[in-house]
Specification:
Length: 247
């Protein structure tokens, strides 16, 4: 059984995520593996269990990558149904508070994640959101008295954060909104994220991995100004995956 705090990692396997985002295969896989490994550590630091929920097609790959974690198959005909099913599974397994995150971005700051769980542990219904710059969310947290908060959301739109905020108001849920963040939606984001990674704490550990994607993705490389020597060092090195920041 899971602990009373659960992080639901709603994701594809790293190689499938890299392919879907249009990233170079080896470097993109290393980057997304770093994100998932980071979430594994962050969940443990927040005294939460990790429940990985993935499409059936990548379940076996994630089980090989995380043999000691629970890896469940997504269930549902629509994206919204799969999200609700994943949250419901965590509650069925004994969780009292659930924070759902994606595998296409780095783990939240530890203090933010702890604050989100602490908010969800109050007696009444509560909702926690970590909004994304594009209008979506990087994390959604619910407790046992707010499980229906996501039921009416139109997903995959740039209004998800606003919809969830309205739902909290309509259902009279205590709402905690964390810091604004961003995830990696496509190859076009790599250059911007690399530029930001020096000053944004959650992205900083992934600078080398982001640079590796830039170095081996010619079309992506053209979108960012990176010191030629930095790129050359990576291009001339063997294409072994970079060291993961959370390994």
């Amino acid at each position: 059984m899971l602990s009373r705090r659960t992080v639901v990692l709603f994701t594809r396997a790293p190689e499938a995520e890299a392919r879907a985002k249009g990233l170079p295969a080896a470097e993109g896989t290393s980057l997304f593996t770093g994100f998932l490994s980071g979430w594994k550590r962050r969940a443990a630091e927040a005294d939460a269990e990790l429940l990985i929920v993935t499409p059936v097609s990548t379940q076996a790959a994630l089980k090989r990558l995380f043999p000691h974690e629970t890896v469940a198959a997504q269930n549902g005909d629509t994206f919204g149904a799969r999200v609700e099913s994943a949250v419901a599974l965590a509650f069925e397994r004994g969780a009292a508070s659930v924070v759902m995150v994606g595998g296409d971005g780095p783990p939240l700051d530890l203090e933010e994640l702890r604050a989100g769980f602490a908010h969800l542990e109050q007696p009444g219904g509560a909702l926690y959101l970590a909004p994304a710059e594009d209008g979506g969310v990087n994390a959604i947290g619910v407790n046992g008295r707010s499980k229906g908060a996501c039921a009416s959301v139109s997903w995959l739109r740039p209004t998800v954060a606003a919809q969830l905020t309205d739902a909290a108001r309509r259902l009279e849920l205590a709402l905690y909104v964390g810091g604004m963040g961003c995830d990696l939606d496509s190859a076009a984001d790599i250059a911007r994220l690399y530029r930001q990674s020096k000053s944004v704490s959650i992205w900083n550990p992934f600078r080398t991995l982001l640079l590796a994607v830039l170095a081996h993705g010619r079309a992506i490389c053209n979108r960012v100004r990176v010191a030629p020597a930095s790129l050359a060092r990576l291009v001339l090195q063997p294409r072994a995956p970079p060291v993961l920041p959370f390994a």
